[in-house]
């Protein structure tokens, strides 16, 4: 794989605190991504926003406004993580699908690919720019647009299971599963819209636990111990 999109769940970025940023977790992500870029692999990143805000959890305010706050939460996450990456010695650029003044660059495929080819790690903040979507969908969409070889999905859980391992101690983790089966069995590695986009556009996924040691770098080796989602 030469070009990958790494999706970091907001919750995983918060570490044990479950909210805000956990610097140690982000520094560890940076260390591993640098290993990949040092090998010449182009990396684009999407972060979730659940460590700050989820639009659908508000029962009071208008959903469109709630989702706009969620999208802005992902911008904060990307600005933070991109600066941790700079501290770790990488060049970065944050793209958004809407204008954020001088804070970010307005997304276009050409600008994003140019930045990747110049050696930068790029961040896609702000999701799709539209309410009623998720950063999972935004991540698949951008992975397809930049013609990534795969989407790496770093989650709080270490792969896809046949049932919830927190509830069922006998839950079985899949080593490999097709996206069709993920959909048929409603395993929801990513949400439904994102799964369908993955299937239609044949975007493979590697699902793994962000907190497992070296889990990001191992996606590129035979040691990968998460779940491969084939298309
Ligand atoms: N969001 C949105 N459109 C997008 C991406 C995200 O409206 O294209 C909003 C939505 O409110 C979501 C929040 O941003 O709840 C955080 O994104 P994330 O996908 O991380 O939400 P989660 O999966 O944690 O609910």
From TrEMBL:
Q: What is its EC number?
A: 2.7.4.22
Q: Which family does it belong to?
A: Belongs to the UMP kinase family.
Query: Mind telling me which CDD domains this protein's record contains?
Result: AAK_UMPK-PyrH-Ec (cd04254)
Alphabetical UniProt keywords:
ATP-binding, Cytoplasm, Kinase, Nucleotide-binding, Pyrimidine biosynthesis, Transferase
Q: How does it assemble?
A: Homohexamer.
- Determine if Transferase is one of this entry's keywords: yes
Per its record, the protein catalyses: UMP + ATP = UDP + ADP
Per the UniProt entry, what species is this protein from, by scientific name?
Suipraeoptans intestinalis
Q: What class of enzyme is it?
A: transferase
Quote the cellular component terms of the Gene Ontology held in the record: cytoplasm
Coiled-coil blocks: none
Q: Where in the cell is it found?
A: Cytoplasm
List the SUPFAM superfamilies hit by this protein, alphabetically: Carbamate kinase-like
Q: Where does ATP bind?
A: 7-10, 50, 54, 161, 164
| Function comment | Catalyzes the reversible phosphorylation of UMP to UDP.
Looking at the record, the residues that make up the Aspartate/glutamate/uridylate kinase domain are: 2-208
Q: What is its main location?
A: cytoplasm
* UniProt xrefs under InterPro entries: AceGlu_kinase-like_sf, Asp/Glu/Uridylate_kinase, Uridylate_kinase, Uridylate_kinase_bac
Q: Which NCBIfam families match?
A: pyrH_bact
User: What protein does this entry describe?
Assistant: Uridylate kinase
Q: Which GO terms describe its molecular function?
A: ATP binding; UMP kinase activity
Can you tell me which residues bind UMP?
Answer: 49, 67, 128-135
Q: In which pathway does it act?
A: Pyrimidine metabolism; CTP biosynthesis via de novo pathway; UDP from UMP (UMPK route): step 1/1
Entry keyword annotation includes Kinase:
yes
Write out the transmembrane intervals: none
Q: Known activity regulation?
A: Inhibited by UTP.
């Amino acid at each position: 794989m030469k070009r990958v999109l790494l999706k970091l769940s907001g919750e995983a970025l918060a570490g044990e605190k479950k909210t805000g940023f956990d610097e140690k977790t982000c520094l560890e992500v940076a260390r591993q991504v640098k290993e990949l870029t040092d090998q010449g692999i182009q990396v684009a990143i999407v972060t979730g926003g659940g460590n700050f805000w989820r639009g659908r959890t508000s029962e009071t305010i208008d959903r469109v406004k709630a989702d706009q706050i969620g999208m802005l939460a992902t911008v904060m996450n990307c600005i933070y993580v991109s600066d941790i990456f700079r501290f770790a010695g990488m060049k970065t650029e944050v793209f958004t699908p809407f204008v954020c003044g001088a804070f970010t660059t307005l997304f276009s495929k050409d600008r994003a690919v140019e930045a990747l080819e110049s050696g930068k790690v790029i961040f896609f903040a702000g999701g799709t720019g539209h309410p009623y979507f998720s950063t999972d969908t935004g991540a698949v969409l951008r992975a397809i647009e930049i013609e990534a070889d795969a989407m790496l999905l770093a989650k709080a859980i270490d792969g896809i299971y046949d049932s919830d391992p927190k509830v069922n101690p006998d839950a079985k983790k899949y080593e490999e599963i097709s996206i069709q089966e993920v959909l048929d069995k409603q395993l929801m590695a990513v949400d439904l819209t994102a799964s369908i986009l993955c299937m239609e556009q044949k975007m493979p996924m590697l699902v793994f636990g962000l907190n497992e040691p070296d889990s990001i770098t191992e996606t590129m080796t035979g040691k990968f111990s998460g779940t491969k989602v084939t298309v």
